[in-house]
Amino acid sequence: MNAIKWVQQTMLAAACLAVVHAADPIRIGVPVGLSGANSVVAPSVVQAAELAVEEINAKGGILGRKVELVVADDGSGAAGAQKAFDSLIFQKKVNALISMETSAARNAGLPIVTRGKTPFIYTSFYEGRSCNRYMFVNAWVPDQQVAPIVDYFMKSAKAKNFFLIGSDYAFGRGMLEFTKTYIGKKGGKVVGEEYLPMDGSDWTAVINKLKTAKPDAIITSTAGGAPNVTLTKQLRAAGITLPYGNLAVDEGTAKDMGADAEGIVISGSYLTNIDSAANKAFLAAMQKKFGANLKTPNDLSVPQYEAVYLYKAAVEKAGSTDAEKVIAALATVKVEGPRGSIQMNKQHHAPLTMYLGQVQKDGSIKLLESFKDVDPGAQCPNLK
Questions:
Q1: Which candidate, 104, 32, 116, places its Cα nearest to that of 69?
Q2: What is the C-alpha to C-alpha distance for residues 100 and 308, in angstroms, rounded to an integer?
Q3: What is the DSSP letter of 62?
Q4: Which candidate, 68, 135, 186, 236, has a CA 20 to 30 Å from the CA of 14?
Q5: Are the beta carbons of 179 and 188 closer than 8 angstroms?
Q6: What is the pLDDT of residue 18?
Q7: Could you give the 3-state DSSP secondary structure of residue 375?
Q8: Which residues of 228-250 are buried (b: 16+ CB within 10 A; e: fewer)?
């Protein structure tokens, strides 16, 4: 009888433990630049993640478990990212990481992702060809974004000579290297290429070189946020009125720039004026939740919102939060979001509809052209 009771008690304890485990929240880590270069855009990213989690929890969570966000400031750089990733993965024990970051932060965090075997959805547009078994990307790469701007300037402004300006790190140099190659293939010429450190704010010397080079158009690739603001303000103050394409400005930052942003040509996978039921519902939900505190949804925050749903779909398909099962499912699942249908099935990247737009005086974006389901190209052909 004692043996039978012991077995019964053991089974009861195991059942109770299973119930407790099932009730544990699924924790999503969001390492993001609340300070540093990305501090201008990071609040909108966090808001988008908060809305997605609220909506999912209102409908029962994921596999019956509530979802919890754990946000950590990565300082927009490598050193901060190492601390944030390490804390989230090994101390906070998050089930996944979902966030936009600078390339410097991403590159510093990836070895920690590998060591922790943690699914990571990277939601920031970036310079491309960053490959890791645990990382999936639902934002654009140069193969999808550069051509519309260069082609537009060559056609509308008859531009042949281009001046390139960037932040001196992986994103800035990677984007402009791709741009330089593309300009050459199209018969154009790069007459100047200048960089400033990510935390640099005085563009005077660069602008003087630009004036001397006398280009037909300018294309810039600066760290998202503060460098975009300082460079544009100083270009305007210097009286530069050349056709200006920015590879890194999001719609929210453009609005924050005010009149300085007028005329900038951008290319991206999201604009607030996308005319779809899904986008209108998303914008309405964001307005309802955040009201006067709402940060303008943009091409950095919307992929964050959709990525939470991609992770949800992968976990539900896998039937588990087990990392290996989730990464096996991530390339196979699809979600319908504000940008349309998103699936990260192209070497851990996603085909995306791209939009070419121009910033207006009131900060809104005038749609010039759209390009449906643009392939990201060969990003990570050797991933298994």
A1: 32
A2: 12
A3: B
A4: 68
A5: no
A6: 45
A7: coil
A8: bbbbbbbbbeeeeebbbbbbbbb
